[in-house]
Write a structure and sequence with these properties.
- This protein has a domain of 37 residues.
- Helices cover 53% and strands 0% of the residues.
- The chain is mainly α and 59 residues long.
- The chain starts with 9 loop residues before the first helix and ends in a 13-residue tail after the last helix.
- This is YozD family protein.
- Pfam families: YozD (PF14162).
Length: 59
């Protein structure tokens, strides 16, 4: 199997959930959306779909 590099951003996940939930008639709070994004990210790690890597900040 070929390996590809994918970048997953929890802020992008949160935006996606917000849009999708509003379209379905739900009005979640920002805190709820952030929790959903974090849970989704953790799920992807638990299922070995992604690996968490930390970027070093350059100062």
């Amino acid at each position: 199997m070929r390996e590809i590099e994918v970048f997953i951003d929890t802020e992008e996940i949160a935006d996606f959930f917000m849009k999708e939930l509003i379209e379905r008639g739900f009005v979640p709070s920002e805190a709820e959306i952030e929790e959903l994004a974090d849970i989704t990210f953790e799920y992807l790690i638990a299922k070995s779909i992604i690996d968490e890597e930390w970027e070093e900040e350059i100062e």
